[in-house]
Amino acid sequence: MIFSNHVLLRESLHAVLSTELDVTSVGGDDGEALTAAHKIRPDVIVVDLDGPGRHGLRTVRLLVAELPECAVVALTGRHTPHALRQALAAGARGFASREQPPAELVDLIRRVGRGERMIHPGTALATLAAMNNPLSARERDVLRLAARGMPSAAIAAELFLSEGTIRNYLSSVVRKLNCRNRLEAARLAEEAGWI
């Protein structure tokens, strides 16, 4: 079963996968996905995380909770360690890329259906690379708050540090990550799975 609110993606996947697998595609909200899954009882459910509304992770959690016998594959265009961690924490047994060749996607779905955990190879490699995080624990704390849009004064109050110390940490982070500003550094660190 394929669940996506993105009609073109859903129908394209249906067309490609139906040549290899018995596939049903469903769009709509979480309730429609659950209703269809309860009715069909598929072995594997592919959930698009990037569709309109971006409720894919919530859908994964609901499906895993209500139909634990169905394996869920999270499908996304975001190949970051952060996206992988979120999908696995939601209960997905597979993590696939929108950019995978159809044969690889079919193989991944089949293997997840047999009980294996499968992760898109590029994302797995990026996750391993993320283990070389150059930021200290305190720099990560400061950057995490900065990523939420908090000004230096608010970060200082939150962490019980001076505003000057916060500016020093942010300068260090920007320098270490070779970025132009703290927003770019926060985006890079988030994609790398460091914050």
From TrEMBL:
<dbReference type="Pfam" id="PF00196">
    <property type="entry name" value="GerE"/>
</dbReference>
<feature type="domain" description="Response regulatory">
    <location>
        <begin position="1"/>
        <end position="113"/>
    </location>
</feature>
<dbReference type="InterPro" id="IPR001789">
    <property type="entry name" value="Sig_transdc_resp-reg_receiver"/>
</dbReference>
<dbReference type="InterPro" id="IPR016032">
    <property type="entry name" value="Sig_transdc_resp-reg_C-effctor"/>
</dbReference>
<dbReference type="GO" id="GO:0000160">
    <property type="term" value="P:phosphorelay signal transduction system"/>
</dbReference>
<protein>
    <submittedName>
        <fullName>Two-component system response regulator DesR</fullName>
    </submittedName>
</protein>
<keyword id="KW-0597">Phosphoprotein</keyword>
<feature type="domain" description="HTH luxR-type">
    <location>
        <begin position="128"/>
        <end position="193"/>
    </location>
</feature>
<dbReference type="InterPro" id="IPR000792">
    <property type="entry name" value="Tscrpt_reg_LuxR_C"/>
</dbReference>
<dbReference type="GO" id="GO:0003677">
    <property type="term" value="F:DNA binding"/>
</dbReference>
<dbReference type="InterPro" id="IPR039420">
    <property type="entry name" value="WalR-like"/>
</dbReference>
<dbReference type="GO" id="GO:0006355">
    <property type="term" value="P:regulation of DNA-templated transcription"/>
</dbReference>
<feature type="modified residue" description="4-aspartylphosphate">
    <location>
        <position position="48"/>
    </location>
</feature>
<dbReference type="Pfam" id="PF00072">
    <property type="entry name" value="Response_reg"/>
</dbReference>
<dbReference type="InterPro" id="IPR058245">
    <property type="entry name" value="NreC/VraR/RcsB-like_REC"/>
</dbReference>
<dbReference type="InterPro" id="IPR011006">
    <property type="entry name" value="CheY-like_superfamily"/>
</dbReference>
<keyword id="KW-0238">DNA-binding</keyword>
